[in-house]
Write a structure and sequence with these properties.
14% strand; alpha/beta; 365 residues; 13 strands; binds pyridoxal-5'-phosphate; 13 helices; 7-stranded mixed beta sheet; two-stranded antiparallel ribbon
Length: 365
């Protein structure tokens, strides 16, 4: 047994196979002297749209901006209501409040901790403008059912795919079901830049045009401001070149993540640990492997003593955050916040490290 700790995410090791192509991509941008919305952004946008199976991809500054611009593109503004979940880290709520809109929280299902379609139906009476569906931990949510509900009620469906790059169901990728799919390329995501980055995907040409304007001052053409609420949120040319270098490896990295998730599912045996169900299929890209334990702090200390990192995604449900407090009861979301614990699950983990995590969990007293 080595003494090096098993890290939750290990940027150096995950990046290592890509370093030569990242270095040459960076050098090419430097040599091109095109730094803003140049050929590298255009190329990545084309490649990423093709990968997702959508007509368009629009690069932006980060995943949070992607969510906010998506809401603006479907006319969410002051007084609008937007349905979302309360257990997904608050990114959707941040974007909703930035638009002056109201989040309407729906409960999650207890098996996968994803938006429960049965909880959505009654909320549609509140005439929401949009619904943000988060494919949490890499698991694709019930997007088919929810897309139908949204279509019936004229609600714009926005998929938050920041944890689900490459997840697919019936041959369709995450991000291609809704009106818009939002991605983050934060370094720890399944497709990660070496800084901030984000993108939106859509097959609607009108929405694509609005997003292109919104990411750059609201311009329809240079110095002509067509849309209010525009801003400067562009994907950086260097990050785009790096993402193009890394995109060809995404499916292989996702396959390794799935394999680790399946191994955890098959090998962790402990009556106090609740394992997630149905992990490691093609509609799951295993961004995070999240177990539940009522004695979470003791478990974290035990893992730490065995040199294993863990983290909590996420400890405070949105409706209990000081900024967004709502007197609302969401028992499954609240209980999940008290019990969830993320284990190391990244593509550079060795089989031996995965086994160390399993052994440490199985001997938790
Ligand atoms: C990371 C993340 C975001 C935000 O992305 P940034 O690039 O950090 O702004 C949004 N939603 C989810 C589900 C995320 O995991």
């Amino acid at each position: 047994m080595t003494n090096a700790s098993v890290r939750l995410f290990d940027a150096a090791r995950v990046q290592a196979p890509y370093l030569p192509s990242i270095r040459s991509a960076m050098a090419a941008v430097l040599d091109s002297s095109r730094y803003i919305l140049g050929p590298a952004v255009a190329q990545f946008e084309q490649e990423f749209a093709a990968y997702c199976g959508t007509g368009f991809a629009i690069g932006v500054g980060n995943g949070s901006d992607a969510l906010e611009l998506a809401l603006r593109a479907v006319d969410v503004g002051s007084g609008s209501r937007v349905i979302t979940v309360a257990n997904a880290g608050g990114y959707a709520s941040t974007a909703i409040s930035a638009c002056g809109a109201q989040p309407v929280y729906a409960e999650i299902d207890d098996q996968r901790l994803l938006l429960d379609p049965d909880a959505v139906a009654p909320l549609l009476q509140m005439r929401p403008q949009a619904l943000i569906l988060t494919h949490l931990y890499g698991q694709m949510a019930a997007v088919g059912t929810i897309a139908e509900l949204c279509a019936e009620h004229g609600v714009a469906l926005i998929e938050d795919c920041a944890q689900a790059h490459g997840a697919e169901r019936e041959g369709r990728r995450a991000g291609s079901f809704g009106a818009i799919g939002c991605f983050s390329f934060y370094p720890t995501k399944n497709l990660g830049a070496i800084g901030d980055g984000g993108a939106l995907v859509t097959s609607d040409a009108v929405i694509a045009r609005r997003l292109l304007a919104l990411r750059q001052y609201g311009w329809s053409s240079k110095y002509r401001v067509e849309l209010a609420h525009g801003r400067n949120s562009r994907l950086d040319e260097l990050q785009a070149a790096i993402l193009s270098a890394k995109l060809p490896g995404l499916d292989t990295d996702n396959a390794r993540r799935r394999e680790i998730a399946r191994r955890y599912g098959a090998s962790i045996r402990h009556r106090d640990l609740q394992l997630p169900e149905g992990r490691g299929g093609s509609d799951d890209v295993a961004h995070l492997y999240v177990i539940r334990c009522a004695r979470r702090e003791a478990l974290r200390a035990h893992l730490s003593a065995h040199g294993i990192d863990s983290d909590v995604h996420y400890p405070i449900p949105d409706h209990r955050q000081p900024a967004w407090e709502q007197p609302l009861s969401l028992p499954i979301s609240e209980q999940a916040a008290r019990k969830v614990l993320s284990l190391p699950c990244h593509p550079a983990l060795s089989d031996e490290e995965v086994q160390r995590v399993v052994d440490a969990l199985n001997c938790f007293a």
